[in-house]
Design brief:
- Helix content is about 65%, strand content about 5%.
- By secondary structure, it is mainly α.
- The chain folds into two domains: about 1-145; about 160-490, Neurolysin, domain 3, CATH 1.10.1370.
- A hairpin with a 2-residue loop joins strand 2 and strand 3 (about 235-240).
- It is globular, with a radius of gyration of 22 Å.
- The model has no long low-confidence stretch (mean pLDDT about 95).
Length: about 500
């Protein structure tokens, strides 16, 4: 028991330092002065060096060996599983490489933001090449002779391989393409008209966040170029963005990040600052943000509630009825930005990135050719040309910060959300009556009890299977999309 006590105490301190590192990243995206990026890079590299040294400390291996074979309760076993996974990963990656990745990605993030603002991929390409080289080196160390991309994917979705995702996404794609084609032959939905005061947008966003259960006593909402969430336990922060011509960008970015934030806030407090005190994986995490944003937030019932709130906040904005508003919220039309894509086309954006990043990691696609490869693939998938880099390969922050293997978890999260929503509606047939008056309490309570409170107690697919009572598949998501959009657009599918 001494080995276990020492190990868990040591890991708690490591988890706390990890939260500090995450807070530095949050500050960099929201409040840090623009001239501070070089120093911040050095600070984050120093902290990453400390974290890497702790995660690869030989004493962790000794403590784990002393605990091996002993009978522990389920929670302790899960903590040991996660600590062992992190330790085995850390000892494969040299400390100087971990520091170099932290320093380079911190610098690259600033260069990405500047290049995006100037629509200048050429200005970003050299530092992206540096990031890619470092991450490929890390992936090779982690793979130990195995598939490099699978080793990267394991950081975000343990237990899943690229070949499994290929099969699942391959089953998704034909139905999505067919549905998209049917919809785009129909007249477009009516659009919002007018100017939408950004202060009012943020006020409504705050009300929506609380409506979905986000606790502002242990969180906050700030603005960022690319919305994200950060933290766990008693300090979980989210960001959003505003556009005076498009309040949906603000509202649904907020609801999306609230899904992430509520997951972290609702993990059992007993797990705080432990190895299981956060979400089970990025795919499971994304299932929460997507079910909050889409199946709940974009439902016919909830948009009735939001329509009334927007009329009160903005007056007349060119939409006369709740039915027109529902169609506007769920409008399917041509666009370039993944985060603004409708439910039908969103996964096509993700699959593009999944294929391109796998090609870069494999060495089949060079960084200098990324923009043209992106533009060619986009034209093939969507049928029109990308006009500028900020609407193409510079739109996402992920590659600048080294998140190779992350993108497929977005579509996996959509698949998981489809499974969860199928189960939720079966257990709560009066859900629409609740959503129509802005009451999310039963829906979010079920998610908290069935999934969120468990944190990383179980492996990702076990987490979803236990919540849904069935092994996850793409079928519920496809059925949901076909039913919803066939009704919206009067399709014959």
């Amino acid at each position: 028991m001494t080995a276990l006590t020492e190990l868990l105490h040591f890991d708690r301190q490591t988890q706390a330092l990890g939260q500090v590192s995450g807070r530095l990243g949050w500050d960099q995206e929201t409040m840090m002065p623009s001239g501070s990026s070089a120093q911040r890079g050095e600070e984050m590299a120093a902290l990453e060096g400390v974290l890497h040294a702790r995660r690869s400390d030989p004493r962790v291996g000794d403590w784990l060996a002393a605990c091996d074979g002993q009978a522990f309760d389920r929670v302790t076993q899960a903590q040991l599983r996660e600590i062992k996974t992190a330790y085995e990963r850390a000892v494969k990656v040299p400390g100087d490489l971990a520091e170099a990745i932290a320093s380079t990605t911190s610098m690259a993030q600033g260069k990405w933001a500047a290049a995006r603002a100037e629509d200048d991929f050429a200005a970003f390409a050299p530092v992206l090449q540096e990031v890619l080289a470092l991450k490929r080196e890390e992936g090779q160390a982690l793979a130990a002779g195995g598939d490099v991309y699978d080793a990267m994917l394991a950081d975000y979705e343990p237990g899943t391989t690229a070949s499994e995702l290929d099969q699942m996404f391959g089953a998704l794609r034909p139905g999505l393409v067919a549905l998209r084609g049917e919809i785009l032959e129909k007249p477009p939905a009516k659009s919002l008209q007018g100017f939408f005061d950004e202060t009012v947008q943020l006020q409504i966003a705050s009300e929506l966040a609380q409506c979905f259960g986000y606790d502002l006593n242990c969180g906050r909402i700030d603005k960022a170029v690319h919305p994200f969430s950060s933290g766990s336990g008693q300090d979980v922060r989210i960001t959003t963005r505003t556009d005076p011509s498009d309040p949906f960008n603000c509202f649904y970015s907020t609801i999306h990040e609230v899904g992430h934030g509520c997951y972290e806030q609702n993990v059992d407090p007993e797990y705080t600052l432990t190895a299981i005190g956060q979400g089970a994986s990025m795919g499971v995490h994304e299932s929460q943000s997507r079910i909050y944003e889409n199946q709940l937030g974009r439902s016919r019932a909830f948009t009735e509630f939001l329509f009334a709130k927007m009329r009160a906040g903005f007056g007349d904005f060119g939409i006369e009825s709740a039915d027109e508003f529902y169609k506007a919220v769920n409008s399917v039309r041509n666009g370039f930005i993944r985060t603004e894509a409708d439910e039908v086309q969103y996964n096509l954006h993700v699959l593009l990135r999944f294929d391109l990043e796998r090609a870069m990691i494999a060495g089949d696609l060079q960084v200098q050719d990324l923009q043209s490869a992106w533009n060619d693939r986009f034209a093939a998938d969507f049928g029109y040309e990308v006009p500028r880099a900020s609407q193409g390969c510079l739109q996402d922050v992920h590659w600048s910060v080294g998140l190779f293997g992350y993108f497929p978890t977005y579509s996996l999260g959509n698949v998981y959300a489809g499974c969860l929503f199928e189960r939720m509606t079966a257990l709560n047939p009066d859900l629409d009556d609740q959503l129509r008056v802005g009451d999310l309490s039963k829906a979010t309570a079920w998610l908290k009890e069935s999934l969120q409170r468990h944190g990383a107690l179980n492996l990702p697919r076990e987490t979803i299977t236990q919540a849904c009572g069935a092994v996850p598949s793409e079928a519920p998501l496809l059925a949901y999309l076909q039913d919803k959009f066939s009704d919206l657009y009067d399709l014959s599918l």
